[in-house]
Each structure stands twice: as C-alpha cells, then as structure tokens.
Amino acid sequence: MSDWPSAARLRDALRRYPIWYEQLPARDQRLLHLGQIVVPLLLLYLLVWDPLMSAHAALARTLPLERERAAQFAQQADAMERLRGRGPIAADTQRSPRALIEASAARAGLSGQLQQIEVLAGERMQVQLAPLEFDVLVGWLTTLASNEGWRTDTVQLKAAGDGRVKVERLVLVASGR
Prior knowledge:
59% of the residues lie in helices and 21% in strands. The protein has 177 residues and is of the alpha+beta class. The model has no long low-confidence stretch (mean pLDDT 85).
C-alpha cells in the first residue's frame, strides 16, 4: 500500500492542475479540449456500441436457423403425437400466431422461402417470402385457411418466371376472430 498516494498528495495535485493547465500553450489546451471530447466518444464506441452491434449481428445470423429448428421441432412433436395415436397437438391453444404460421410453412416445405413475419394491428400478420412456385404458394395458403384458421387478406404478386412468383405483400388475418 505504500505505492498509493495519500489523500493529501492527491488534493495537492488537483490544486496544482489549473495552474499547470494555464501555463500550457493555447495549442496544447485546444488539444486537451479535443481529447475531452474524443476519448469519451471512443470509449462509448468501444465499450458499448461495438459490442452491441456485434451481438446484434450474431443474433441476426442465428435467428433463421433457430426459427427453422423451432418449426422442425413443432413438426416432429406433431408427428410423435400422431404416432402415439393422439393426433397433433392443439396448436391454437399452445402456440403463438407466428409459430403457427412458421410451423405451417415448414410442413409445406417453405422454411427456406419464409423470410419474415411481422405482427400488424389486431390479429393480422404480414409475411415476407422469397420467390417460390405459384402452385406451392396457393397450396400453402389453402392449408393455412382450412387447417390453421388464417385466411389471406391481401396478396400482391409479381411474376418471377418459370411459374414462380415474387410475393410483394402478403397479409394474413385470423378467421373468425
């Protein structure tokens, strides 16, 4: 502990700081002022912003994989229940609307095309899909309406060639809710 300065020495040094500062040339004083701005900003970037953005990027990379795993798990759980002779798990009571749509897309083989599901006002969901075959899209939307209780409210399509369509806007609404 002998290396630590005493409180009296620290008070003395702090008392001498303004005198030392006033003796500095104007250029050095401006440099110290600039340092008072740059150093906190640099610390903020290095200690807060950069770690947050790195974590965000890592989560953004793993999110699609985790969604696919969750959809596969739900599909496997339904298959297990069918094998046990109980039928599929009652999805309406145990899963969120987003999970229902993701699971339905996975069962239809659309996990790779499903890009984003966004909750809109009320019981409406906007779904973004990668370009896919028109027949596959219609089959999935029919299954959603008949089995899951989600009907198509709005759909805007654009031809992508070879029987494929680009879904520019797809809004689903819960039927009878």
